Amino acid sequence: MATTSTHLISQWDTFHQNGPFPAKMVLSTKPEARHIMPVAIDRYNDAADEIRRLIADAVTHHERFRPYGSTWSLNNIAHQQDRMHHNAFMNIKMDIASGDIHPQSPYQHGNLFFFQCGNTIKEISRYLFDHGKSLKTSGASNGQTIAGGISTGIHGSAMDVGSLQDCVVGINLITGPEPADVVYIERHTRPALNNTFAAKLKSKVIRNDDLFNAALVGLGSLGFIHGVVLEVENLFLLKRYVKYIKRAEALDLAENMNFPNSSFVIPSETDANGKPLRPYHFKVYVNPYNANEDYVAEVIYKKPYVPGYPDPIPSVRKAVYKELPDFMVMLAAKYNRVIPLIINAMKGTLFPKLDSETTGTLGEIFWDSLHKGKAFAVTIGIDNKDTTKALDTFLNFVNTEGPVPGAIAFRFAKATEATLGFTKYPMTCILEMDGVLWDDGPGIVSYSKFLTRFIEVFQQANISFTMHWGKNADWAFPGLVDYMFGNKKDAWINARSALLTQPMADVFSNDFLDSTGLSVYNAAANPGLIVSLNKNGNPDPTV
Amino acid sequence: MKKYITGISALICMAVLLFFESCYSVRIASKHAIPEPNIMPEGEGYWRDKQVYTLDTTVKLKILESEATVLNLCPDGFHSIEYRVTLGHVLLSGITLGKTKKIKLKCNCVKPQ
Ligand SMILES: Cc1cc2nc3c(=O)[nH]c(=O)nc-3n(C[C@H](O)[C@H](O)[C@H](O)COP(=O)(O)OP(=O)(O)OC[C@H]3O[C@@H](n4cnc5c(N)ncnc54)[C@H](O)[C@@H]3O)c2cc1C
Hints:
The complex is a heterodimer.
Chain A: E1 3-8, E2 11-12, E3 21-22, E4 25-30, H1 40-60, E5 65-68, E6 83-86, E7 93-95, E8 112-116, H2 121-129, E9 133-134, H3 146-152, E10 168-174, E11 182-186, H4 195-200, E12 204-207, H5 209-216, E13 224-231, E14 233-234, E15 236-245, H6 247-256, E16 281-286, E17 295-304, H7 313-319, H8 326-334, H9 338-345, H10 347-350, E18 357-360, H11 362-365, E19 375-383, H12 387-400, E20 406-414, E21 427-436, H13 447-460, E22 465-467, H14 480-485, H15 488-499, H16 502-507, H17 511-516
Parallel strand pairs in A: 4-6, 5-6, 11-12
Antiparallel strand pairs in A: 1-4, 2-3, 7-8, 8-13, 9-14, 10-11, 10-13, 15-17, 15-18, 16-17, 16-20, 19-21, 19-22, 20-21
Chain B: H1 2-22, E1 24-29, E2 53-60, H2 64-72, E3 78-85, H3 87-95, E4 100-109
Antiparallel strand pairs in B: 1-3, 2-4, 3-4
The complex binds flavin-adenine dinucleotide (FAD).
The site of flavin-adenine dinucleotide (FAD) has 34 residues of chain A, from strand 5, helix 3 and strand 13.
């Protein structure tokens, strides 16, 4: 049987020390050992029973229950002060057989894999590599769990692929303590697995695009994600270049994505007519405190997988974003004028190594990240057409109301189908500042004021934006979620209210959800929202 | 007097050199291994998100059981190991002519699959 250890605690914190937050209890479940229960699906169902038992216990004690992954979110989205559940040991992996595929599925069975919630990106990449497969995209690093990653909507800069949740084609949720509370959901327009497979998971099937899209970026609040079905692809290589790029070239590419007609050329990456190829990934780094300096572009091209390339990992490690040392935080609190000087001096460590070329698999290029101190990250999604306006607003803001200890970058991802996915624009430009979490002091804007002013300044500039759910923001800013998502907010609340009973909706809420206004329950939500549909959109009598 | 001071300085320099030479740690990690996570992040730096096991022991040469103890830390394999040598370790080894060695290990195991 799966076993759960109980850890009584007084506080809990994130990987990047954005807390601590008060907390009572952490539960951590390990599936049964393989030699005792050799069949993966038996171990998986046994773990589901254990999670239902833990939820029942939380209900009995009138306490909330919140799963968390690698604690990589830099705010309190993964926190809950009653009972928290650590998922990282729940890492069962299952291949999908041809007989498991839905008759109307557009997917090939060889490209579908089932992963339990606590598998990390690194773990998944390794497993897929052994099958000659790869994730289609990931974030810039590999430590997130699959359930944690999709719950906030993580992205890299694979602009024509999208975000991680866009590779999910099925979700197995546990929404309460009863056996009937285990549901397997998919899109009705693109079903993946058949009813027999769902029956093996002891799950009720709901094929419904709206419900599925709401659950894709569920903020930890649509029940316990026990496992997901991922669509992957054949192993490929990525070739990565880091070059200076003129501001005008970077912004033209950002807004028009017209790579073939750009003056930014990497000579080895052109077509037969000498025109630049469209890359797989395009990311630009900006030093916010030196307007005269060129930007740095990280450009990555997709190549067929051919073994025998030089090991990329040592050189990739050198290029991983490095946080500024602690002394900078101390200095910053007292004398904010030193921040630009330090950022200028530390460009070599803040930005990837210039003129480097590296080849590797997705899992090798987006490699391990290490903890280097307290960090903050502010990340917004904007329409790529607004890149110049948004970047200039950001630069002006940090130069007039700051400076603050961080550097700016922008990346791209095509629109997600997830209802609350922050990469919602047809081509979303993800504009971000990563830096050192500073202490308040006389010489620097306070961290909380910086977060509030950020929203005010962007709203005053009339820029439509969303914010990354796993990053820092003034999440209690009045009307923020309405501003970001308009009536999609209600669509999400309604889907959640239809799927969860009111008491269970409260069990799966937390402070983050309360402060964003998303824990509201609509008792009148249309029950049709959780009806399983066939491909034509009519109720499906077969489930 | 001058000679005396120079002698002391030389000794101090040697001691400092010996100290820096002999107080070091080496960290080795397996490239593709998946680290065993801890339940909650703890401490700072490299080990913050990893379940840490430590071994701080003294072994006498030819006692094989001690080697086995080290391996028992991570039955399925190591993700990373930090081996620390301090001045005390070097002195102990020197005094006992290499027969007694202090072992100070910090490690993280691979995540159970
Ligand atoms: C070093 C570093 C690099 C990063 N790089 C990127 C990047 O390149 N791109 C990007 O988009 N983001 C990035 N982030 C942000 C981070 O990837 C996201 O916040 C991600 O969601 C964290 O995943 P996690 O497994 O740590 O989940 P957690 O932070 O632990 O949890 C996130 C959410 O998922 C929920 N959750 C977790 N497990 C379950 C489950 N089983 N069922 C239901 N809900 C669940 C939690 O309740 C919470 O709401 C980075 C963060 C760090 C620290």
